[in-house]
Design brief:
Organism: Myxococcus virescens
Protein name: Pilus assembly protein
Radius of gyration: 36 Å
Strand content: 5-15%
Region (Disordered): 60-80
Number of domains: 3
Keywords: Membrane, Transmembrane, Transmembrane helix
Helix content: 25-40%
Largest sheet: 5 strands, antiparallel
Shape: elongated
Number of helices: 5
Transmembrane segments: 12-36
Amino acid sequence: MEQSPSRRTQRGQAMVEMAIGSLVFITILLFVIHFAEVSFLSVKVTEAAHSALLEAPGHKLHEWPNDSSPSSAAAERAGQDAAMRYRDFDSRTTTNSAGVITLALTRTDGMQVSCTQGGPTFDPHPVFTSVAYRDGGGISCTAQADLTAFRIPQRVAQRETGGFFQAEHYEMLPIRVCAMGRAQGGNCTGRLTSMLDDWGLTGSGESGSCPIIPDFPGPCPLNLPYWGMASSVYGVSLMVNAFGPDFSASRLAQTVVGGLPLPFFFGAENMFWMSAVGEEAFFGQPLPADSMGGLATMGFKGWPTSPGLLPPGLNWQAIPYPVSYGRRDSCFLGNECP
């Protein structure tokens, strides 16, 4: 059966519209895939900067007393390690070389990650804690990558070649993505910052017990950094808050009994006495036997170093600290154990 001319015209118009529509649809599909890949890689750039920021506190950050120079090296190393982990945009894998990374429609020649000392500071007290702590500054990290479209034709059915379109598809210039914000003039100015180092006592040289030497106000040999920190702050506080040493107790002893009890000496009340032992010694430091009617004869052979810790035999239910310690769980952050 022969079709009418109008019917053939309608079918021809539909075929032309479908062909033109397919060109538009394919173009849209290509760019949807490309920009989806750009979005994915942009998130990985931010992830790399975060990774460096969180890794830095794991490195050595200070050397007591008053040396914060290791924190600068820690910041730089954290950036270098993150750049190595994310050179293929996937920290779960390891590659020998970065090279050119190619996805379906996007290409990049790798990522740059860097961290420096800077950012927020904690501003220690200018008088009391400045002798023990130094504000070494925080950490500032950034990351960037150049992403380029790949396998997308710049021209499709151009009019000068007998086609329909005048404008080019896409100018194949790289897109610079940043860990924070947008690139300004081709530079990534946004940075992730964080405080770095709380001068906490860590490591084998700073985390040990600090038992007191009975009747001798000297440094504890097992943890000199801890003793030195506390002693330095005490010395400044003694001069500022107490207006210097006071010898009232020594004078009172000399006036009442005519001398000082051995082995104490004149002015011993101004010396720095420190005992800091933890759960490894049950929060109590054993003392030598006292035959002169001291603590040992009272049935208590330990120096209490924690709030509320009293000699055994008393009403322990009335002592909040030991009771709470005894009821503690071993699970993380106090969560219920599974």
